[in-house]
Design goal:
The protein is α+β, with helices and mostly antiparallel strands. The chain is built from 25 helices and 22 strands. The strands form five sheets. Strands 12, 13, 14, 15, 16, 17 and 18 form a seven-stranded antiparallel beta sheet that branches. Strands 2-11-10-3-9 form a five-stranded mixed beta sheet. A four-stranded antiparallel beta sheet has the order 5-4-7-8. Helix 16 crosses helix 17. The radius of gyration is 28 Å and the shape is globular. The two termini are 51 Å apart. The structure holds 2-(butylsulfanyl)adenosine (IVH).
Length: 660
């Protein structure tokens, strides 16, 4: 039996931690130190471990680490989820307001809000805690994605209002997190998401909330649909803010057209500076009684509408498609375009991703197409302008043979790619060498594209390990290579031998071993022999590695080609085990750098990682040390407020040398 005192303490702790989470995540204004917060959380965890029967779903410990679900059930919306009518012109905005005034007169107020480009969700709270969360679905029935919604740190699981409450909002991803998700997907041969919205939708539908937690979803709440406190939307939004919900701070009141037009300009400017996608502005009548009078059509309310900014797109002609061979043999179609200006830069190429994408678009050579920048990164083709077809457009023919080595290409049933099967294909070799020498791998400066081309052409390099047989004289003999630059490259090659094991592992360019898995594998197995001798089960035992990847890794480390490559690199003196002595000095400690230091930031970050420390992306409760250089940024203020250890370069060096 759990005593009343413990029960009381348990719920008190939940309340306190919830409050601190809101201060930290929603209000950006923590009022206790990192250490104090951790103590509260630790106490809560101890109680839960001792009395598991006590654990409630709204405990802060239940955000992550909850079990995967086996399916995503559907559930009916208590209140239908409507969508909004879109307008694209100021005339339409004006007509909309005229219609409202005709029906309810002049005595109304409007609320203007940024339209967040994400995924709509409806969240139900009962007895003061989040009971379930649904996607919009068809407006009547949505998908229950509570397990993933709970991972959103800015969303309170518990609120100080015990009534039945339904709030609605938009789940979204920041561009930065979207980029990271896609980087990971590309590195692991998965099709990248087209934009942050698709990535957010995909994340909400994951079965395993631990994967969702890694992607950092966020949510803006934009409606209170049940459990209203006031007679108007604007005051209810303030109330939701008070309860700890994240409500966009750019929401404004207005009561005439000019204020709307000013707001459209204002948000357009804001849109260019913020790190999440805004695709327009939503205009809503605030008073609920007026909303009832205005009513709704079959699909849209008559009391609100969305003004959408035109997507930054351009039209141009697709003149050719080239096929690029990557280091794992994947052949990527690249569209060659007639150059066109788009969002301030000249675009002459766009990725077509893979075979499925070509089919989906139905694109042909000679077509006029629209290009857009998805999440402001790589330009992509969004649509074929079929009306401009003349009849002389040609189908895109997928190469039956590798465009570089002429080997047969294959397409596996379950993959949208075609691959070159020749492991010795010069294009694959070139891509492998460039990857091996890249900054995040062995960092061999000077070993760039044109030099690698020449080295392969002149047969100096037939495999990665040949890099370490290169001599200064070999390089000097090549076109446009001077004595000094040749010497520098040889030095850089020599220096690369001291790169730590995880960098070497990443540099090998093995499918599925990206930077993150390289660190995980290096730390887990300690040396290459343990990896080569590991069984499938040994790989599966690693928490972060799933069954499929485990069996692929197992297979790869049995391939003769791979074993040979490792053997040769080993004989050249590369590190194939973790350096226990230097790897632990900063173990368990987290760092972040602000301002400029005496050497490039990347070098410090490497030093931290080599010594077992971790580099964080933002100031957070997890941060142990902020290293401050010249002209520090806002991180310094934030770290000060949170009572985080602030050190300079000298103090960091002392820390490194202290335990030596
Ligand atoms: S109000 C009945 N407010 O836009 C009114 N929607 O095209 C429901 N959206 O389905 C929507 N930001 O997913 C509203 N501040 C905002 C919004 C917003 C984004 C999304 C939402 C909705 C879609 C309508």
């Amino acid at each position: 039996m759990v005593s009343e005192d413990i029960k009381k303490r348990y719920f008190k702790l939940i309340d306190e931690i919830t409050e601190h989470d809101i201060n930290y995540y929603v209000k950006n204004n923590p009022i206790i130190s990192d250490y104090e917060y951790d103590c509260l959380l630790k106490e809560l965890k101890e109680i839960e471990e001792k009395y598991p029967e006590l654990v409630v779903p709204f405990s802060p410990t239940q955000r992550v680490g909850i079990r995967p679900v086996s399916t995503i059930p559907t559930r009916e919306h208590e209140i239908r989820m409507l969508s909004l009518e879109n307008t694209y012109s100021k005339e339409e905005v004006s007509a909309f307001i005229d219609r409202i005034e005709k029906k309810v007169g002049n005595n109304y107020s409007l609320v203007l809000e940024p339209k967040i480009d994400g995924v709509a969700v409806s969240l139900t709270y009962d007895n003061g805690y989040l009971s379930y969360g649904l996607t919009r679905g068809d407006g009547y029935v949505g998908e229950e994605v509570t397990h993933n919604i709970k991972t959103i740190k800015t969303l309170p699981l518990k609120i100080k209002d015990e009534r039945h409450i339904v709030v609605r909002g938009e789940v979204y991803l920041r561009f930065e997190d979207f980029r990271k998700i896609n980087e990971y997907r590309i590195e692991n041969d998965l099709t990248p998401f087209a934009n942050p919205r698709n990535a957010a939708a995909g994340t909400l539908k994951l079965l395993d909330p631990r994967l969702a937690a890694e992607r950092h979803l966020d949510v803006f709440i934009y409606a209170l649909d049940a459990g209203r406190k006031f007679d108007n939307h604007y005051d209810d939004m303030d109330y939701l803010r008070e309860l700890g919900f994240k409500v966009n701070k750019n929401i404004k009141k207005a009561d005439n057209k000019d204020q709307i037009f000013d707001y459209l300009d204002e948000i357009y400017k804001l849109k260019k500076t913020i790190d999440y996608a805004i695709d327009g502005v939503v205009v809503k009548v605030s008073e609920y009684n007026l909303r009832s009078i205005l009513g709704e059509t079959a699909r849209f309310p008559r009391w609100a509408f969305a003004y959408k900014y035109p997507a930054e797109q351009a039209s141009t002609k697709l003149v050719d498609v080239r096929f690029q061979v990557g280091r794992t043999g994947i052949i990527t179609p690249v569209a060659i375009l007639e150059p066109v200006h788009l969002s301030g830069s000249k675009v002459s190429k766009a990725t077509l991703h893979n075979v499925d994408e070509i089919r989906r678009l139905g694109v042909k050579i000679g077509d006029y197409v629209f290009v857009e920048k998805a999440g402001e990164i790589i330009p992509k083709i969004t649509k074929v302008i079929t009306k401009r077809r003349k009849g002389d457009e040609r189908d895109i023919v997928l190469p039956k043979r590798c465009p570089v080595c002429n080997a047969i290409t294959i397409k596996e049933e379950d993959e949208p790619f075609i691959r070159c099967v020749n492991p010795e294909c010069p294009a694959r070799l070139k891509a492998s060498i460039l990857h091996f020498a890249s900054r995040d791998a062995m960092d061999i400066k000077g070993l760039g594209e044109s030099l690698v081309d020449k080295l392969i052409k002149e047969s100096y390099i037939k495999s990665i390990a040949d890099i370490y047989d290169l001599k200064k004289e070999d390089l000097i003999g090549l076109e446009r290579m001077g004595e000094k630059s040749s010497e520098n490259i040889i030095k850089a090659i020599e220096r690369s031998k001291s790169k730590p094991f995880h960098k070497v592992l990443y540099a090998l360019g093995i499918r599925h071993i990206g930077q993150r898995y390289a660190i995980i594998l290096a730390n887990h197995f300690k040396n290459i022999d343990n990896i080569i001798n590991a069984s499938k089960e040994d790989f599966e035992k690693i928490e972060e590695i799933g069954e499929i990847i485990a069996s692929l890794l197992y297979k790869t480390f049995r391939e003769e080609r791979v074993i040979k490559m490792i053997g040769r690199l080993r004989s050249k003196g590369l590190k194939f085990s973790i350096d226990e002595k230097t790897s632990k000095k900063l173990e368990g400690k987290t760092f972040l750098i602000t301002g400029s230091l005496s050497k490039p930031r990347k070098e410090f970050e490497e030093l931290i990682e080599q010594n077992g420390g971790e580099v964080l992306l933002n100031v957070s409760k997890k941060l142990d040390y902020l290293i401050v250089g010249k002209k520090p940024g806002s991180k310094l203020d934030r770290a000060k407020k949170m009572g985080i250890n602030i050190i300079n370069e000298e103090q960091f060096n002392e820390l490194l040398n202290k335990n030596a």
